[in-house]
Specification:
Largest sheet: 5 strands, mixed
Number of helices: 14
Order of helices and strands: HHEEEEHHHHHEEHHHHHEHEEHEE
Distance between the termini: 63 Å
Strand order of the largest sheet: 7-8-9-11-10
Structural class: alpha+beta
Strand content: 5-15%
Radius of gyration: 37 Å
Length: 533
């Protein structure tokens, strides 16, 4: 506490308050003058763009204030949502933009092709092939009858069976940098070729931008801040400067009181005068008392300043920061990206498991059956042995497919719920697991699936990495949340990578309590949604 007056944080906060008064005076004067001029000119319609200009100007003031708060107060204040003009309606008779490969309302299905204005990279179309002949320059693909288009290539409509067919690339891949790179969207009507213009006024017109500013709640909050902050800035400036100057001047009074007798006809600082009686701070006792009082004010000033900037912080975050709706939209956009990444990773995992597991075994099965067919006449015993080996491969492939299907969404979860499904997962775990599910009814299928996947991943981590001798799974409902707790007595570890992000994408929470040698307790929460009949 004694070092508080000389800490850097206090000086930054004091500087914030001192600089705030001239800036707030500028904001207040320009905002009030602009609002008055705009309101007075509304009858001539000139006031509408004037008001929009005032709103844009106040949003600029908000940028300055947020930068001051981040730099001097070290508070991470987010930017509000940008002003987005509404899209202009399409002219009458102009077709609406559609996804590549999907027909517009009432129109024919378009052929796949590159987006307007964007170069596209397509698979080379195979040349025309006659029935029974392999493609020129292309070897015949196994399993594809001669004359049929190869997999991944669609025959042109109208080609007769057995006749030469013209094949084309099934799907284009839009090159990066186009207006719809990676998604196959056609460019929107009204957008310049090569991508949308970064200038909102160029895309939507000045009137649309003006209308968006006037309807922006964030812009009006910036105006409110410019008006309301001025009286508070005056009060904060006066109080902080008075306490700071009085405290330090009195604290250091023993070092400069000699100025009075040396350069004036007074023995010290005059405290008060009552008629002929005048009291000066010139005796050692009075000088010491003044210094002690200054020390008290000096120690008090940092806390007063901190209280003043706390009010400023609340005003900036509440009026100049993003609204709750903006934060919610941002969180949903981030969660949507995580969900998309998770789905893509799951698809890659399923493809890899099929390719390395069941597909390889089925290929070996085909080879074994082919050899058995060749040896059936000349060596029946060898053929029987090959058929027996193929039978074993079939069983293993079926088990791998069954395990893969169970990992995606087990049938027991759909039929009997979380209790039975988690008990099945616990039975396959490498360590003994005790499962207790206390739910009044079954949650929504999506919540059940996420809870099942979370517990499966946590138990797999327990069996592989913790060295635990036992584990416990508890699932219960608390208010509007579904809570999951997985605890083990292993050597301590964290949660699997990416699990917290996947739960956050569905408004879930993950907490890990891990101590070396004392085990790990992972608690997950999911929003509860009841199952509809």
């Amino acid at each position: 506490m004694l070092l508080a007056p000389v800490r850097g944080r206090v000086w930054r906060e004091l500087l914030y308050l001192l600089v705030g008064l001239p800036l707030s005076t500028l904001y207040f004067g320009l905002a009030v003058a602009g609002l008055s001029a705009g309101a007075g000119l509304l009858l001539t319609f000139v006031g509408v763009p004037v008001l929009a200009g005032v709103l844009a100007m106040c949003r600029g003031f908000g940028h300055v204030e947020r930068a001051r708060v981040r730099g001097l107060l070290r508070v991470p204040v987010g930017d509000p949502a940008p002003v987005r003009p509404a899209k202009r309606p399409l002219p009458a008779g102009e077709p609406a933009p559609v996804r590549a490969g999907k027909p517009a309302a009432g129109g024919p299905a378009p052929k796949h092709g590159p987006a307007v204005g964007a170069p596209s990279t397509v698979r080379a179309a195979k040349p025309e092939v006659a029935a029974g002949e392999p493609s020129a320059g292309y070897p015949a693909e196994p399993g594809v009858p001669a004359g049929d288009p190869a997999p991944g290539y669609a025959a042109e409509p109208g080609s007769a069976a057995g006749a030469p067919s013209t094949v084309r690339a099934a799907k284009p891949e839009v090159a990066a940098g186009g207006p719809s790179a990676g998604y196959g969207y056609a460019a929107e009507a009204g957008e310049p070729v090569g991508g949308p213009s970064p200038d909102p006024a160029a895309r939507h017109g000045v009137a649309a931008v003006v209308g968006a500013l006037l309807k922006s709640g964030s812009a009006w909050r910036h105006v409110l801040y410019s008006v309301v902050h001025f009286p508070w800035a005056v009060f904060s400036f006066c109080l902080a400067l008075t306490l700071w100057s009085y405290g330090w001047s009195m604290l250091l009074y023993p070092l400069w009181f000699w100025v009075f007798p040396a350069f004036t006809d007074r023995p010290g600082l005059q405290l008060f005068q009552n008629g002929d009686y005048t009291f000066y701070l010139d005796s050692p006792l009075a000088i010491g008392a003044a210094s002690a009082l200054g020390l008290g004010f000096t120690l008090l000033t940092p806390w007063v300043v901190r209280g003043l900037v706390t009010v400023d912080r609340v005003m900036v975050t509440g009026l100049l920061g993003p609204s709750r709706l903006d934060e919610r939209v941002s969180a949903l956009e981030s969660g949507r990206g995580v969900a998309a990444d998770t789905a893509a990773a799951d698809l890659r995992r399923i493809e890899r498991d099929l390719h390395d597991g069941a597909q390889a075994r089925l290929a070996a099965l085909a080879v074994d059956l082919g050899l058995a067919k060749e040896k059936l006449a000349e060596d029946p015993r060898a053929a029987a042995r090959l058929v027996d080996e193929a039978h074993g491969e079939v069983k293993i492939a079926l088990q791998e497919l069954r395990d893969l299907a169970r990992g995606i969404h087990p049938a027991v979860l759909t039929d009997r719920g979380l209790d039975a499904a988690l008990s099945s997962v616990a039975a396959r775990c490498a360590v003994p697991v005790r499962v207790q599910v206390d739910l009044p009814d079954r949650p929504a299928p999506a919540v059940e699936g996420i809870a099942y996947a979370t517990v499966s991943e946590l138990l797999e981590d327990v069996g592989r990495h913790t060295g635990a001798r036992s584990a416990r799974v508890d699932v219960w409902r608390s208010g509007g949340r579904l809570r999951i707790r997985v605890a083990d007595d292993g050597r301590g570890s964290g949660a699997p990578a990416g699990l917290a992000e996947r739960l956050d994408a569905v408004d879930g929470v993950l907490a890990v309590d891990s101590v070396d040698g004392r085990g790990t307790r992972v608690t997950a929460e999911l929003p509860w949604r009841a199952r509809h009949a």
